[in-house]
Amino acid sequence: GPTVAFAGVTKSYGATIAVDAVTLDIAGGSFVALVGASGSGKSTLLKMVNRLIEPSAGRITIAGEDVTTTEPHALRRRIGYVFQNIGLFPHMTVAENIAIGLRLAGTTINGRVAELLALVDLPADVATRLPDALSGGQRQRVGVARALATQPGLMLMDEPFGALDPVTRDQLGVAILALHDALGLTTIMVTHDMAEALLLADRVLVMERGRIVADATPRELLAGE
Ligand code: ADP
Ligand code: ADP
């Protein structure tokens, strides 16, 4: 996956500074966790990468290219995005939900959907079901499959395990890590759960009041405690 760089990135809402002059380089292919209390600015920092939020100041580049020079829809085809309560359309089948970002002929789509379901370890027969007929963990896997449909090199995840029970959470964590490795993705994951960050990421950034106050590997963090 591509490198991602933040240079003096700030986002303010009136008097609230959600992200405060963050400068940061994320190496291509790394798995970075953004950890911190609620309101520390994690989601805001993440959503500026795919332009769901525009910075008040500063610059974000992906593989050296300024995100503001890329049209948002084109940008989002290159960036997978997974969030809590994944927002599958309830009246559309799993296959239709996964294929929503694809612009392919119907027959080609069926093959691609089958590949994507296999990638996230879901049985092929869920393709024709509605999201309500799946478990929470299965729905979240469909969300991951949808995020991977356009073969992005960069994956953004905002509390991807938020609503899941501990066992399902662990299983999905293992699956996401395997996909990260197999596809060579650059992954940035927001979580309030340090244990999850230590388990999955190879670099942990701790945010507090819009700033990055710690930047270390899980090994370093564990040794320091
Ligand atoms: P986190 O993801 O760490 O919980 P957020 O990035 O959601 O934090 O929020 C950071 C700060 O910005 C918080 O103080 C939050 O209240 C504020 N904030 C976020 N979005 C908005 C918004 N749309 N309008 C006003 N304030 C916002
Ligand atoms: P809001 O901020 O209004 O709650 P969301 O950020 O949840 O909106 O996004 C709304 C919908 O847009 C999502 O359900 C998702 O399907 C789609 N979407 C948002 N961001 C992306 C993205 N980066 N790539 C693909 N689809 C996206």
UniProtKB/TrEMBL annotation:
Residues 4-225 form the ABC transporter domain. It comes from the Bacteria. InterPro entries: AAA+_ATPase, ABC_SmlMolc_Importer, ABC_transporter-like_ATP-bd, ABC_transporter-like_CS, P-loop_NTPase. SMART domains: AAA (SM00382). Keywords: ATP-binding, Nucleotide-binding, Transport. One of its GO terms (molecular function) is ATP binding. PANTHER family: SPERMIDINE/PUTRESCINE IMPORT ATP-BINDING PROTEIN POTA (PTHR42781), SPERMIDINE_PUTRESCINE IMPORT ATP-BINDING PROTEIN POTA (PTHR42781:SF4). This is ABC transporter ATP-binding protein.
